[in-house]
Design goal:
The protein has helices at 49-52, 129-142, 158-169, 181-189, 205-212, 226-235, 263-267, 284-296, 313-321; strands spanning 2-8, 21-27, 36-44, 71-81, 91-97, 101-104, 111-112, 149-152, 173-178, 195-198, 217-222, 236-244, 271-274, 304-308, 328-332. The protein is of the alpha/beta class. It folds into 2 domains: 2-125 and 303-332, Alpha-Beta Complex (Quinone Oxidoreductase, Chain A, domain 1), CATH 3.90.180.10; 129-278, Rossmann fold (3-Layer(aba) Sandwich). The longest helix is centred in the middle third of the chain and has 14 residues, at 129-142.
Length: 336
């Protein structure tokens, strides 16, 4: 049996380009005891993957290797199993190759998901690790309280939309920024943010924050970094909590942005905490139960941007890095 795979052809120098990827045919290995063969249905592309394209990867994960398949979070169906914990026909979630099929050695990366509880693609976004990322950053670190002001950058993305809705459910006033007027209308109209702005069209981010967060910012969910973070530091209230989730504005830059307002952390006694969701993976089942209830009760909205075809995964990934997606970027690889 063969499968198509997308491999890393070269490492990007600055922005990722299509030439950094290649499609190849590969033979599927035989299953050893404990192994599971998974046919892929949906595949996630996420900002953190940009760091894995660099030589050496990132501090918390090994990087992609030249000539080898990229890997990420996948929803698939068990096609063959030599593992007692997984049966043919089970829908599973796992960290698998960018491919039509993968072998999960020992089944270690897999867990069964319930297609009756939610659409399968949701387990890669709102009910998956992007949603868990929002949950950890907003609920455990941000801890918004009723009447506080919460600011979420990249608010229409897979993480931002969930983070803002969790803050709104907690009773906070939520402001979001996004890169198009349509995305701003979505987070305000569909996700229930109290207000928002298009960071591309406002005179400046500092001016926008002074207008939309006139009483200051009590919780900042940081997805963007750079000039956005500099502006939030100025507008933050004393003892504000910063959940440092990502720095997407910096991932493709040769020269990093140098923050000018770091002294605000000291003078305002800010709590600035970075986090990586893999440290909290034990919370996934608890998170899914809570969030599925929010969705079923109409307290939370889900937005996805689904691209069809494995061969289109590189374009979807590049577009996501440029902010062209609307909601969680998912690639549909096959049918259940």
């Amino acid at each position: 049996m063969q499968t198509r795979q997308i491999v890393l052809a070269s490492r990007p120098d600055g922005w990722v380009v299509p030439e950094n990827f290649a499609v190849r045919e590969a033979d599927m290995p035989l299953l050893d005891p404990g192994d599971v063969l998974v046919r892929h249905l949906y595949m996630s592309v996420d900002p953190y993957m940009r760091g894995l394209m660099n030589d050496g990867g990132v501090a918390y994960a090994a990087g992609f290797q030249i000539g080898q398949p990229l890997f990420g979070r996948v929803i698939g169906v068990v096609e063959s199993s030599r593992n007692k914990d997984f049966r043919e026909g089970d829908c599973v979630f796992g960290m698998l190759d960018w491919a039509e099929r993968s072998v999960a050695r020992g089944g270690e990366s897999l867990r069964v998901v319930d297609p009756a509880k939610a659409p399968l693609s949701h387990y890669l976004g709102t009910l998956g690790f992007p949603g868990l990322t929002a949950y950890v950053g907003m609920t455990l670190i941000g801890q918004p309280k009723e009447g506080e002001t919460v600011y979420v950058s990249a608010a229409s993305g897979a993480v931002g939309q969930v983070a803002g809705q969790l803050a709104r459910i907690a009773g906070a006033r939520v402001i979001g920024s996004a890169g198009t007027d349509e995305k701003v209308r979505f987070v305000v109209g569909e996700c229930g943010f109290h207000d928002g702005f298009n960071y591309r069209t406002v005179p400046s981010i500092p001016e926008a924050l002074r207008l939309y967060c006139a009483d200051g910012i009590d919780v900042n969910f940081e997805n963007v970094g750079g000039a956005n973070l500099d502006a939030v530091l100025v507008q933050a209230n004393p003892f504000a909590r910063f959940a440092m989730c990502g720095m997407i504005s910096q991932y493709n830059e040769h020269e990093p942005y140098h923050l000018k307002n770091l002294n605000e952390i000291v003078s305002k006694r800010l709590n600035v905490q970075g986090f990586v969701v893999r440290d909290h993976s034990h919370l996934i089942e608890q998170f899914i139960e809570e969030t599925a209830d929010h969705i079923a009760a109409g307290r939370m909205t889900v937005a996805e941007d689904i691209t069809n075809g494995l061969e289109n995964a590189p374009a979807a990934f590049i577009g996501m890095l440029k902010g062209e997606n609307f909601g969680k970027q998912v690639v549909k690889v096959g049918e259940l």
